[in-house]
Structures are given as C-alpha cells and as structure tokens.
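Example noted here:
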Amino acid sequence: MDLITLLPFIVLIGAMFLMTRSAKKKQAAAAQMRNDMQPGTGVRTIGGMYATVKEVHDDTVLLEVAPGVHAIYAKNSIGAVLDDAEYNRIVHGDDEELDADGTVVPDDASSLTGESGADKADIAKIDLGKDETADDAGTEDAAAKDVKDVKDAKGDGKADGEPEAK
C-alpha cells in the first residue's frame, strides 16, 4: 500500500483521538469540581438555579435553594461551583467594585450633558401652545361641515357618539 493512500485515514484517526482526549479532560475537570464541593459553597445547577450546598453525599447533594427550602439534586446536575464573591454578587447583588469606586449614578441625564445653568438659559424655548393669530373662522366652518357630512352619510341624522333612538 502507498503512504499517500493511508495519509487521510491516519489524519482522521489522529483528529478523533485529539477530540476525545479533550472531552475526557473536560469531564474529569467537571467531576473533580463536583467532588471538591464543601457545605456552604455556592453553586449553579445546569438548569441555571443558584443555591448553597448543605450536605454532600456520594451521588447526591442537598442544596438550600431559598432560606429554609432544601432540595436534593444529583451531583451531575451541578454546573459550576462558585467562589464566595461571585455567588454573593449574583445572588445577593453585592457589588464590591461599585463600593470601592464610589461611583454614583445621577437621577437624571442633565448632569451628563456638561451644560451649565447659564448655557441652558440661552437656549430658546419652544412654545407648543396654539398660536392666537392662526385661529380663523375658516377652521370652525370646516369642522361644522364635517359633522354635517357624517350625518348625511349615515342617513339617519345622528352624529358619532349620539345614542340610538328606539
């Protein structure tokens, strides 16, 4: 047999070996993580629920999912064991980074624009009210004609919103 003919098969077998090797490493790391769980540590299940470990058995784990609420889970259902800082940040909303920076978020965006009070006074204000000079009699006549057209179109002499006569 020729070496060139065997080369694709050798490459395929080598790729399969490397893929299974990395998968076995990931499985071993996950099993080690689950075996290293101690009571009091925070965990995330594969379903996305955060809980605290109360007891660890051979194949099961007793989790406290809420204060006073306990549930038994299989060890395989633990997706990640979290360190205390990350668990407290996610579950309790403790943000040590914000406390250290002292960053304060303003209630409105006016402080973010960088304009001073004098600059705001210079900006012309827009009047959204009705202009007195634009009110002319032609507008009122058009509205009255529209109501009459509605009555004529119905043929019964009543406008929209009027109760029916029985």
